[in-house]
Design brief:
The structure holds two protein chains of two kinds. Chain A contains two helices and eight strands; from the N terminus they run H-E-E-E-H-E-E-E-E-E. Chain A is an alpha+beta fold. The longest helix of chain A is centred in the N-terminal third of the chain and has 21 residues. The termini of chain B are far apart. The chains are: A alpha+beta, B mainly beta. Chains A and B meet through helix 1, strand 1, strand 2, strand 3 and helix 2 of A and helix 1, helix 2 and helix 3 of B.
């Protein structure tokens, strides 16, 4: 009987050791959004290049986090207004996504290739959390794992108000693209 | 013995990643929020001026601020002058942001046909995460009166047209809504019109703002003169205003007893008294242009 106990004991510990190789991460992921209205004379685009992203291959858990102040604009005033008037980044410093890769089992992390995936989870922007789902890609190759997706974000869903005065410049829906190149997380 | 196995199996099930990690915070593994990052406090004021005086706020590098300022006539003149709007004094100016804590500007006012220029530098800027609780900004400016000589037959020195001002602004953005600053100021005028007037005037500026919404703020700008007040000649300038931000523009609307729009003029030559309702309506219009591309920012990918 003792041998069974030891066997179970080992099984219990296995997942703890197993985690280390399963988790991939980056601190320099990229997010770009484009909220330019159809006839806007100005391009309203923000770029972020220090997005934190972690993927757990085994469970398919996928999480993103981006500091709002990390979005950079070509026009300084636009960046100021983005933080001050729209995102209120002092009050809501981060945007986050916590979810899972629904078809994680179809992704062969051991074989190079591009795998289309569906992702579902909760997105928090401007202090508002919403359940969202989107399609994306996982690219395995060169010792890295690349996670890509693009999806629309309706500003009103996250209580981001656009005054009528600038309604012809800022679109009510922002196009968001994510591109993160992950490496193994060593703990 | 069976019960032990059941417990062990149960524990195994709990420990299996599929169950344990659905809600696990993976981000905390890499995104450690231990030390808060040092970050300069921005947007203490909507504009680089409170109303008349300089504010603790700086223009971002590469920006040009085109400023058009108007001060109308006395409101208490009534309908014959359309409450002062028939009379206007103006200043047109260009300010430039050089670095995050250095800016300079030039302007020309109709009042005394005065040219002015200044340099503003902040050796200390308020920041979060263990930085300074206040911003300290130093301003040095010069004014040139270009009114034609009253008596061209006399020997007139160019230096008699000049004035200087020096200011140390100590300000703090206490909250998202509330900012307060103190600004000890020294104004030197090379030639004053009356012998009884002082060439050097020392004043303390008290400026602040209270944000009432994301785009509207109430502002006040007072300069208390410690010397240089001649009864019946001049007084302390006080302005109460409202900042309205509309995209690329900031409108600063206000009521004031001052007519001058540079430090020399409004500190030493404010004549109207609030107690006599000698007030004027005025506005500053600020339009910001991005002169230089921001390097390394927002490149496409």
């Amino acid at each position: 009987m003792r041998i069974f106990h030891i066997f179970f004991g080992i099984l219990l510990l296995l997942p703890i050791f197993g985690h280390t190789q399963d988790r991939w991460f980056t601190k320099s992921g990229r997010i770009r959004f484009d909220a330019t209205a159809a006839n806007s004379p100005k391009e309203i685009v923000g770029n972020h290049s220090s997005v934190v992203c972690v993927v757990d291959k085994k469970t398919g858990a996928l999480q993103f986090s981006a500091l709002i102040k990390g979005f950079q604009f070509k026009v300084a005033l636009m960046e100021e207004h983005f933080n001050e008037n729209y995102m209120e980044s002092d009050k809501f410093p981060k945007a986050e996504f916590r979810g899972t890769i629904l078809d994680n089992t179809t992704v062969n992390y051991g074989k190079d290739g591009t795998y289309p995936v569906r992702v579902k989870g909760s997105m928090t922007i401007h202090g508002v959390t919403k359940e969202v789902a989107s399609e994306g890609q996982l690219v395995v190759g060169g010792g890295r794992l690349i996670a890509r997706s693009s999806f629309p974000v309706v500003l009103a869903d996250y209580a981001i108000g656009v005054p009528r005065l600038v309604a012809d410049k800022i679109s009510t829906t922002s196009k968001v693209s994510v591109d993160c190149s992950l490496e193994p997380l060593k703990q | 013995m069976h019960i032990v196995h059941v417990i062990l199996l149960g524990l195994l099930a709990i420990a299996t990643p599929t169950f344990s990690q659905q809600t696990e915070d993976l981000l905390s593994l890499v995104d450690k929020d231990g030390q808060p990052k040092k970050e300069f406090v921005k947007s203490a004021f909507k504009s680089s001026r409170v109303i008349n005086g300089h504010s603790m706020e700086f223009l971002s590098p590469g920006l040009m601020d085109f400023r058009i300022l108007h001060r109308f006539g006395l409101i208490n003149q009534g309908y014959s002058n359309f409450f002062g709007l028939d009379v206007a004094s103006m200043r047109m100016g260009f300010d430039f942001g050089i670095t995050r804590n250095l800016m300079l500007g030039v302007g020309r006012s109709t009042f005394r046909k005065e040219l002015d220029g200044f340099v503003k530098y902040a050796p200390i800027q308020q920041s979060t995460g263990g930085g300074s609780p206040v911003t300290v900004a130093l301003v040095a400016g010069m004014t040139i009166n270009t009114v034609p000589r009253a008596n061209p037959t006399l020997k007139n020195n160019f230096s008699s047209r000049l004035g200087y001002y020096y200011q140390a602004i100590v300000g703090r953005k206490f909250s998202e809504a509330f900012t307060l600053q103190l600004a000890p100021t020294l104004v030197h005028t090379n030639l004053v019109p009356l012998a009884a007037q002082s060439n050097d005037v020392v004043a303390l500026g008290v400026g602040g703002r209270f944000k009432v919404s994301k785009r509207i703020a109430l502002t006040w700008d007072y300069h208390h003169l410690f010397n240089g007040i001649l009864e019946g000649q001049n007084t302390h300038p006080l302005s109460l205003g409202m900042d309205v931000e509309t995209g690329g523009h900031v409108f600063q609307l206000h009521i004031s007893n001052a007519v001058g729009m540079n430090e020399r003029a409004f500190v030493t030559e404010t004549t109207g008294k609030w107690t006599n309702a000698d007030l004027r309506f005025g506005f500053n219009l600020s339009r910001v242009f991005q002169l230089f591309k921001r390097t390394g920012k927002a490149e496409a990918w």
